[in-house]
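Worked example

This section walks through a single chain of length 175. The input is the sequence exactly as stored; nothing has been trimmed or padded.
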Amino acid sequence: MKKSTKAMLMLVMMLALVLAGCGSKEVTMKEFASSDGTVTISMDEKWQLEDMGVGSEGWVAAFTEDGSEGILVMQMSKELYGANIPDMDTWKSVIESSYPMSDLKEETNPSIPGMNIAGTYSCTVTAEGVTGAGRVVYGETDYAYYSILYASPKLNDAKVTYFNNVCASFKETAQ
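Given that input, the structure is written out below as tokens.
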């Protein structure tokens, strides 16, 4: 009897391990770079890089194929724009005027190599007239002010983990 109980327990444990792996989707990451080459970040290889136009040379913007989700890495060089953007509060105002945010709730900061993080927030964000869930990180390096914004119809734990992994891949190559 003891042997069959042990065998049954092993079978249940193996089944639990197999089921734990089901439904998890492996994301293959690809490095995306700003058009001026000053910053790179890794995102899902299926996402599409989008040119945000003149003045966004230090930005990286990528979106899902259907455009329902996107991550924008926005950079403002202190050397080029320091007179207009003298501090983090001004930078936050610039970002929030372009991408209106509401219901901001402070969150745990992700790990971003080489960046001093000023704050991380979950929020409701409006981009291109579409409102959805968002997560935004504000930070700075010696070279620039940064904002990393994730917008999606809904955010769940898996998407927050993905965003944190994207943030952890941040590399600034500016001198």
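What to look for: The first helix runs from residue 2 to 21.
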